[in-house]
Amino acid sequence: MRIIRGRAAGATSTLRSDTFAGTVWADPVLPVIDGTTINVVTFTPGARTDWHEHTGGQILQVLTGEGWVCAAGGPAHRLLPGDTVWVLPGERHWHGATATTVMTHTAISLGPTHWYDEVGPGGYAAAHDEESR
Amino acid sequence: MRIIRGRAAGATSTLRSDTFAGTVWADPVLPVIDGTTINVVTFTPGARTDWHEHTGGQILQVLTGEGWVCAAGGPAHRLLPGDTVWVLPGERHWHGATATTVMTHTAISLGPTHWYDEVGPGGYAAAHDEESR
């Protein structure tokens, strides 16, 4: 059993850049234990993950702001505070802020993560245009 | 991908009694998908789970009140809002409110749950007496 008071004590927040576009800060809550890790992730306007998959799935819990989540082959879905997202094991997806807002969410990631291509400017802009959200 | 706006729309909150002691309400957020389920659980004063295990582990995120979590063979640990608990896969444990407070937590349960004996009045009272919290 591991009990965390608020966040991992004394741990450094990490500026994510390799597999993200834009400015994204990850704040550690639970280090990787048994393949499970918890971070609170803050996306600044325009920032988003690259396409990726979680072997065991992922849970997002939106805390503030407004953003997007998009699974491969589907439309982007608008995210607001109070929303919970279950991303299926192995489902390729991206998530991030909108072009004009921040978004902070808790991310509970299960199993190893596999990273793919970045979400290009065109694909990201299309999220803001789609009607089927 | 499954997106939940706040909680499972229209779902009924469930009074848990078979495997809990006292009055406990579970409010559904995410129904069981891929073996993962999310509930927001409210324990009234004195209420607690029976001893149990989650095959894939469990994450507790404390929202309000004050309570206990206890793994088999160890002391009870006091829980407060903002705390996150990672319960290991197969780790036998119980959690609940203190005798004089409510506790509400989000519970993210991974894999099937196996239930065992109830936490007797003596074992529950001992949580309140221990020093090693």
Automatic annotation (TrEMBL), chains A, B:
InterPro entries reported in the protein's UniProt record: Cupin_2 (IPR013096), HNL-like_cupin (IPR047263), RmlC-like_jellyroll (IPR014710), RmlC_Cupin_sf (IPR011051)
Stretches assigned to the Cupin type-2 domain: 40-102
SUPFAM superfamilies: RmlC-like cupins
CDD domains, alphabetized: cupin_HNL-like
Residue ranges of coiled coil: none
Signal peptide: none
Name of the protein: Cupin domain-containing protein
Biological source species: Sphaerisporangium aureirubrum
Origin organism lineage: Bacteria, Bacillati, Actinomycetota, Actinomycetes, Streptosporangiales
